[in-house]
Amino acid sequence: MSDPLGLIGSSVPFRDLPSLGAINSGKSNGPGFKELLEEQIEKVNQLQKDAKEAIEDLAAGRRNDLESVMIATVKADTAFRMLLQVRNKVMGAYEELKQMRI
Q: CA-CA distance, 56 to 30, in Å (whole number)?
């Protein structure tokens, strides 16, 4: 199964990632963390909408392929769970930063 959020296994080769100096100076060519996170949230939202529509179509009799409905539901669930874990990791990192003494 492929990664529904695109967070596991980057599609950008390692050699094409910005150097630490470019990140520190703010001269990175790629999108920032905020933009990537917003994009992934939108993808998860779309997957959930598609799953909800598939379930409604199945219940209304407009669709009779239970397999595709189950696949859409599992994809949406997996994407949401992965996004939730990313959120938990970010919140954990934030809490750890709050505890640091400067």
A: 39
